[in-house]
Amino acid sequence: MRRALKISCVLTAGAALYALALRWNAALFERQRAMLGRLFAALGRMCAQFKFSVAEIAVIALLACAITMLASALVKSIARRSPAPVAGFAARFLCIALPAVGAFNLIWPVHMDTAARTAYERAYSIDDLQQLIRALDTRLRADETGITFEGGRMKLRMDFDLTAQKVAAAYDATGWGTVAPPKAARYPEWLSRIHAVGIFIPFTGEAIISPDELDSALPFTMLHEAAHSLGAFREDEANMIALKVGLKSDDAELRWSSALTAMRYALNTLRSLDEDLFDATLDSISPAARRELDAMGTFTLPASIANAYIAQFSGNAAAVSAQSRSYFARTENAGAYDGVVYLLLSEGDAALDMVLPPQ
Length: 359
Hints:
63% of the residues lie in helices and 8% in strands. By secondary structure, the protein is mainly alpha-helical.
């Protein structure tokens, strides 16, 4: 057992060193990203043969096995009046857990590329942020004709599985790559426990989504989690890819959900900068979009809380200086979900051309 534990420690240390090499070597990181994208695609195709989430079943089986082994070790320790069985269980657990942690660091290297780092280091104009919000509002109003509303709220035309197939087809059609259709969580309660509506499991290549998600947010959540399977490790990066795929889609529901999510992040960024300007802007956007954003609870928390927790682990925008309220910059958590706003602003007119509906 000691030999196995030593081997586990060596493997974990090796994985940590390689992870450091990925952080400092951009070329190596890009090769790793490409390789992992192919791996995730292969795993996703394999697991797509099953209607249920392979990852959820695997976790349940592993937990049941661990609990059974721990209970057995405790019974033996009590019967023998010796801690040896429990110590043996702990050693076996570490032999498995340490390499698993190392493997996760290798298949999920959340590093920031040069373009994203540059985007976060810049200061942006509030006028540019308002222009982005107006462009998103134009897109939302243009695509509303293709959306079904019931009781003033968006209602998807298809069920979960067919919507997931539309998402996979959108990735193919826009040339981003082949992704497996996202799957509905069999037990969505665990997602709620970790304050998530979706998650990508790299060990199985599955994008798992809560079926309880609002209809207006569900398509983009699927697009976002599917983006991870292409090697988009950061949340802002996955949001940016999902937004590009969604807005280029021929499907109005994918476009509307994508624009709505981007609007949510852009408005929350504005809210952290100027409450009065935020209130005036919120009153001017599409009434249908406003109803959906209110249903998401986007603006129900105080600004100081909401902007520290925009869809989980987000950061604050802040004025560059007390003397200049016209410009702002990111202050923390670069790479978080709402970082897509900074990635969009960094692209300037190209982003506006993408957001605005075709003339």
